[in-house]
Amino acid sequence: MNLQKTKTILFLLSGIAGWIVWGCESNFKEIQKSNLSEFVPSGEAEKINLKYTDSGRITAILVSPKMMEFANVDFPFTDFPKGIDVTLYDKNNKRTIILADYATSYKLTNIIDLKGNVKITSQDGQILETDQLFFDQKNEWFFTEKSFKFTDAKGSSKGQGIDFSKDFKVINSQKIAGEIESDE
User: Fold this and answer.
1) Residues 96, 100, 102, CA angle at the centre, nearest 5°?
2) Which whole number is the average pLDDT over 23-48?
3) Which InterPro entries match (predicted)?
4) Least confident window among 19-23, 63-67, 92-96
5) From CA 148, how far away is CA 131, in angstroms rounded?
6) pLDDT of residue 69
7) pLDDT of residue 134
8) What is the pTM of this model?
9) How crowded is residue 116: how many other Cβ atoms within 10 Å of its Cβ?
10) C-alpha distances out from residue 136 to 77, 105, 139, Å
11) What count of other Cβ atoms lies within 10 Å of the Cβ of residue 72?
12) How many other C-beta atoms are found inside a 10 Å radius of the C-beta of residue 84?
């Protein structure tokens, strides 16, 4: 009879344990669902045409089919999932045109991440093409570690890793190959 009693107690304990585990798992799933917050933009806009000014002078024009603002996250950013077309103007009204398939602007760092068929063209005819390029808005400085192609009146070159000023007056490249005419 002792063996029968032990089997019955074990059977009951197994049933109770299973019920507790099932109940906790069910509650755990409900708690997980309630703690999930959807990652949705705080604002969206289509067919953007923004003009940035400084002291009444246009400094930049940004055109994009779609903009998504994520201001309600710990590291706020703005996404341009369908690409951008930006025209920058210097103090002498010289233009630099920037095209990219995708862009993300990070508010806290003032860095813009340009991705996919990135092309920058200066008014002087200098062209830089790459797959990804970062722009430091505060210092007005571009940089990448990706492969690039640079073309100007002196020729074209290819390389990997480059950084340069917004007006192409200062250019630092890392690994470069190509024929370039020198003033020296």
Assistant:
1) 140
2) 67
3) LipoPS_assembly_LptC-rel (IPR010664), LptC (IPR026265)
4) 19-23
5) 8
6) 94
7) 94
8) 0.72
9) 13
10) 14, 10, 6
11) 12
12) 22
